[in-house]
Design goal:
Blueprint: E1 2-8, E2 15-23, E3 26-35, H1 39-48, H2 55-80, E4 85-96, E5 100-104, H3 107-114, E6 118-120, H4 122-128, H5 138-145, E7 151-157, E8 160-166, E9 176-182, H6 185-194, H7 206-210, H8 215-222, H9 237-240, H10 242-249, H11 255-283, E10 290-295, H12 302-311, E11 316-319, H13 330-343, H14 351-354, E12 364-366
Parallel strand pairs: 1-4, 4-6, 7-10, 10-11
Antiparallel strand pairs: 1-2, 2-3, 4-5, 6-12, 7-8, 8-9
Helix pairs in contact: 1-2, 2-3, 6-11, 8-11, 11-12
Length: 367
């Protein structure tokens, strides 16, 4: 079955569309496109994310985003060929794990414009079953990256960073996954400010490289109890949005120093999460060494990747691209796979990752 996966993450950099061919447990990427959000749309999403807002603004944006998703899918289809199903994650504007979540991007519009059935609203059913509603990608990490003899950690550095720990030869119930903390979100926000709105990210980590880490601020940030909380756990703009940026600015440090500090915070919390998870695996008798397979926009930031390598000496670091899964497309590919499972009425959450009471069929289908 040929499926399009649509993903727009917390980094707000745009709409990713991956077209994949799924045959049994084999997933082949046919093509991938990425369409940046118009500046006005990006600003509108920020305006309704984790802040008091009028319901009219959310309703209008719900339909506007779906039109943009449809254009992005149709452009990908024009380039790579027709699809039979679309899996659309939608744009998260609020998320409280185990309680509630909201992704916008009306699936009825997407189905109507493309003429293709759409699977959407993936997170709600996991929350209904007692889970965090995130992370959901570990199901796909398990399918794609588990190894009979090596313990592997799949890392995605999007707006939020998350890991999936795959002990050697593990069954699904042994998978551990959680959000480690900020990925690119804080860095992107500060880079936008530092550039006077010209940049949406720290390209090549150049701003971070020119700054100095504010050690006292970093030490204070690392004392956040979240980083030592046992999974399942998830994070989002609620933790790393406006209030978090305001806390950084209160330090009085120059923006370039705040970017350098946020960059180390991302790498350090990723490393802390991996070290904690691997220690737990060792206690359960799981064999290391560990392979770290990275994906997401953060892999393009050499400062983040260098700090991760420094914090994790001896860990074999590669990109998902090296394993046949485009590092930029992985999350879009994942939602194509999840949509395929939903279409087959198969459960695709991992309760060991989300904390749900049971495995459930995710999402709803708009024919």
């Amino acid at each position: 079955m040929r499926v399009a996966g649509v993903m727009s993450g917390t980094s707000l950099d745009g709409i990713d569309v991956a077209i994949v061919e799924i045959r049994g447990h084999r997933v082949e990427t046919v093509g991938f496109t990425s369409t940046p959000y118009p500046a006005a749309v990006r600003a509108a999403i920020v305006g309704v994310s984790n802040c008091p807002t009028h319901t009219a603004a959310i309703s209008r944006l719900n339909f506007q985003l779906a039109e943009l998703y449809a254009r992005a899918v149709l452009a990908a289809v024009k380039r790579y060929g027709q699809v039979e199903l679309i899996g659309c994650h939608g744009q998260t504007i609020f998320h409280e794990g185990r309680s509630n979540t909201l992704q916008i991007g009306e699936p009825a519009i997407l189905a109507e414009r493309t003429g293709v059935p759409v699977v959407a609203n993936f997170r709600a059913r996991d929350i209904a079953a007692g889970g965090e509603g995130a992370p959901l990608v570990p199901f796909v990490d398990y399918l794609l990256f588990r190894h009979p003899r090596r313990t592997r950690v799949a890392l995605n550095i999007g707006g939020i960073a998350n890991i999936t720990v795959l002990p050697a030869g593990c069954p699904p119930e042994a998978v551990v996954a959680f959000d480690t903390g900020p990925g690119n979100m804080v860095i992107d926000w500060l880079a936008h400010e530092a550039s006077g709105g010209k940049l949406n990210c720290d390209r090549g980590g150049k701003i971070a490289a020119s700054g100095n880490v504010h050690r006292a601020l970093l030490d204070g940030l690392l004392r956040d109890p979240y980083y030592r909380r046992h999974p399942p756990k998830s994070a989002g703009r609620e933790q790393y949005g406006v209030e978090f940026i305001a806390r950084l600015r209160q330090s009085g440090a120059p923006l370039r120093d705040l970017i350098a500090t946020a960059t180390v915070l991302t790498a350090a919390t990723i490393a802390m999460g991996i070290q904690s998870a691997v220690r737990s695996a060792v206690q359960r008798g799981v064999v290391v060494p560990t392979d770290l397979i990275a994906s997401g926009g953060g892999t393009h930031n050499p400062q983040i990747m260098a700090h991760i390598a420094g914090f994790l000496p001896g860990v074999n670091i590669s990109l998902s691209t090296d394993h046949g899964i485009d590092a930029d497309a992985k999350e879009a590919i994942a939602f194509a796979v999840l949509a395929h499972e939903t279409w087959r009425r198969k459960p695709s959450n991992l309760p060991s990752a989300t904390g749900a009471k049971r495995a459930v069929v995710l999402g709803s289908i708009t024919p």
